[in-house]
Structure formats: C-alpha cells, structure tokens
Design a protein that fits this description.
The complex is a heterodimer of chains A (150) and B (290). With 150 residues, chain A is an alpha+beta fold. Chain A contains two helices and six strands; from the N terminus they run H-E-E-E-E-E-E-H. The chains are: A alpha+beta (150), B alpha+beta (290).
Chain lengths: 150, 290
C-alpha cells in the first residue's frame, strides 16, 4: 500500500497527529503522578526549560494492531524539539495474511458502566472499533511518549 | 463462507469472505474488487491532485461528478441540515489546517479557520457540483462505509449472496441461511478487550472511537464551527441497512442525539460515554458487558 495515498480512515491518525502536536500543552490526563526530578546525567539540552516534558531527538516505535488477518504493525518515527513534533514518518509493515418506534426506543436504554472482556473470550467474526491503522499509530506514539519522557 | 482474502486499501485493512459463485471465478472477483476500490480512490481521495476532490481543491468551477457521488452528497446534505452544519464535507479545510494533509505534516497552521458554510461556497445538483471558490472537500465521515456498499453491490451483480466485507471495522454482512455474524465492540480504552457484541444478520455495522488517546483538541472528528473535537463520547457503533448510513451516523452521533437522528433514519446504536456509561438502543442486535 502506498502509505501516503490514504483516503479516508486516516482520520484517526489526524487525531493522534494533532495530539502529538499538542504534547507540549499541559492539556490532560497524561501527567503521571510522579513529578519529574531533574537527573544529574541528563544530557544538557539547550534551553531546556522546566516545563519541557520530553527530550529532544528522534524516536521510533512500532505499533501493532489486530487486523482480521492477524497482527499487523506500523512503524512511526517522530522528531521532537522542545516538545514540538518537527517531523513524523510512518512506515506500514503489513504482513501477508491468509487469511420500533421512536417513542419508546430509548426508555431504559442506559446501561451501567461497561466493562471490557478479553477479546479472546468469545468467538467473533470480526471486531469493530477505531480505525485499525490508526490504532497501530496510536500505540507507536504512546511508546514514543514513554521513550522521550524526561 | 469458503473464500476469503485480505488486502490493504484506502488506509485500512480489508478482509472479505464470500461463497464462491458459479457466475464468476474467485480470482476475477478479487481483481474487480480491488479495481473498484482504486477507482473510488481515484475519484474521491483528498490526497490525489487529479481526483475530483483534488481538482475542486485547486479551482472554482462546475464539476460533473461520477454517478456514485450522489449517494454521498445527498446524505451529507441531510446530515448537514439535521446537525446544523456539524457533519459536512467542507471539514476538509479544517483537517488540512490542523496538519492532516497529504504529506502528514502534522503541523497546524497558525490560524485555523472554521469550515465554510455549505450554501456560501457550494451547490450540488447531481451530477453537477458548483464550487464558488477552491474547496477542500473530505468524504471521510462516510466514504469508507460507502465503498463497502459499492463492493457489496458488485457481489450482488455476480450472484454472490453470502458475504462479509470488513474494511477496518466497517462491515457489510449478507447471509442466505440466516447465520448470525458476531462482531466484537472494541473497548475504547483497551484494544485487547471488547465491551460487547453485535450480532448481525443481513446488516451493516460501523464504529467510531472518539477520544481514544487524543490528548489535545483533536481526534478524527472535528467540530467545523468550534474547530475542536467533541470529547464527551468514547465510542459509537451503528447498525443499519447500509454501511454508508452506519458510517455516516457514527459521526453524526458525536454532534446530535440519537433521538433526533431516529426521526430521519432507521438504525440501532451503542454509545459509550467518557465515564464508560453506555446507551444501547432497545433493538440493538447484541449485548453490552457491565
């Protein structure tokens, strides 16, 4: 597949894309309870300020996603500078697989909190969720955040 | 079903199963499927300068669109009106502005403008689309579902009546023997889990997971007016007669209520909110775990 010629479902990627752009913002719940403590041997980075959360540099991670044919991977390389993404490249690594009426409709329609069950616990023909490629990308980005965190 | 094949196209993984037909060889139908998807992309990809969408982005004018554009644009217009402009193909300009462009620049422009209003910049009377200025359209809210339906129609032509077409979780399922097809509803917080199951018989399903790991203003659905993504919903699934409708309604449910949409369309749905409370329509074919 030509990774640049992606028509539609990359929407999820935008999501993440836009998300990474926002890494520097203090937006939301990815602050782990541990307060980052400056470490003596942290490489000196020009003008690292107290609020920088990620080390400058290029990071690569492989995200995997479950496709109907098995597990597929996508490689993501991100270059960070002062918590801003300055470059991103994406490398798909596909494997060859063989492989009612309106009035009363919603009464009682609310359910208490849903819980997740293992995907393997039931025989399924397919799984539907967020766009698969996007999932792989998201996973890679999560790994990159972990790698890059100061 | 005794035949199956996998491939990647339009940015997602496809898995297709069908019962072999006497009227066409399996190899031939696989070629036809891939060619048809390629044609769809040639026509409507935002990332191809020579596609209709690419050309309209470059120049104002009157464009005669392929016949299959009408189903998409007609449904977009209905949803545009119902959601007061929130579901719109004109979101393309916003997507590009936040960095979702063909080079994956992922670099937001300084000044992100809201999407233009349909009647200010565009009119459509099939097959003619008139663009008052260059317009960046995007059919992402329903395009994937629609191409699944187009492939389903292709199967029907060749008398293939038992099939399952899955494009990254948007699924059309047809059975002549009333076999149930079970589709796991992926946990929006953990892809190794499911929070329920849909059981399909001659229906389509589409899903959209909204805030999955989006940690700034954007995920894949963006409010054209606020220029930020709705955050209250974690995941949505819609079961309907066509994948086009199912796909489109998953986006619409981020912007309006199922009660309102139910006045116009026949569908069943599951919505999982950010607090993991869930709403399942009474006749949704399937169950949730709680």
């Amino acid at each position: 597949m030509n990774s640049k010629k992606v028509l539609i479902s990359l929407a999820t990627v935008v999501a993440v894309a836009a998300g990474i752009i926002g890494i520097s913002s203090s937006s939301h719940n990815n602050s782990v309870s541990t307060t980052p403590v400056p470490v003596a041997d942290t490489p000196t980075i020009s003008k690292t300020n107290a609020t920088q959360k990620y080390k400058d540099g290029s990071y690569t991670a492989t995200g995997s996603y479950r496709s109907p044919g098995g597990i597929d991977n996508v490689g993501v390389t991100v270059t960070l500078k002062k918590d801003i993404v300055t470059n991103v490249s994406i490398t798909p690594m596909p494997h060859d697989s063989t492989s009612s009426t309106y009035q009363h409709l919603f009464l009682g329609g609310y359910q208490s909190l849903v819980v997740g069950k293992s995907i393997d616990s039931i025989k399924l023909g397919a799984v539907s969720g967020s766009s698969l490629t996007g999932i792989g990308f998201n996973d890679a980005i999560t790994q990159i955040k972990a790698q890059a965190r100061i | 079903m005794n035949e199956s094949f996998d491939f990647k196209a339009i940015g997602t993984s496809w898995h297709i199963e069908f019962n072999i037909s006497e009227s066409i060889a399996t190899e031939k139908i696989i070629l036809l499927v891939k060619d048809r998807i390629e044609l769809f992309e040639q026509h409507y990809s935002r990332f191809r300068e020579d596609s209709f969408v690419g050309r309209i982005a470059q120049q104002a004018g009157v464009y005669e669109l392929p016949a299959d554009a009408e189903n998409m644009l007609a449904l977009y217009r209905r949803l545009y009106d119902i959601t007061e402009g929130k579901v719109t193909p004109l979101i393309g300009e916003v997507l590009v502005a936040v960095g979702y462009d063909k080079d994956y620049s992922l670099t937001p422009q300084q000044d992100i403008k809201k999407a233009p209003l349909w009647d200010d910049v565009m009119s459509y009377n099939a097959p003619l689309l008139t663009a008052q200025r260059p317009l960046q359209l995007d059919f992402g809210a329903l395009g994937k579902g629609y191409i699944v339906d187009i492939i389903a129609a292709l199967f029907q032509i060749y008398d293939i009546r038992d099939y399952m077409i899955n494009a990254g979780g948007d699924i059309a399922y047809s059975t002549t023997i009333q076999n149930v097809f079970s589709v796991g509803l992926e946990d929006p917080a953990d892809q190794t889990k499911i929070i329920g199951v849909a059981e399909l018989i001659n229906k389509s399903i589409a899903g959209s997971s909204g805030n999955r790991r989006a940690w700034n203003k954007y995920h894949h659905i963006i409010d054209p007016e606020l220029v930020e993504s709705p955050r209250h919903i974690a995941a949505v699934w819609v079961v309907a007669d066509t994948t086009l409708l199912a796909d489109a309604l998953t986006t619409a449910l981020f912007f309006t209520t199922p009660e309102i949409l139910k006045q116009y369309f026949d569908f069943e749905h599951v919505i999982v909110y950010n607090d993991r409370s869930a709403q399942k329509s009474d006749n949704f074919p399937g169950m949730l775990y709680s």
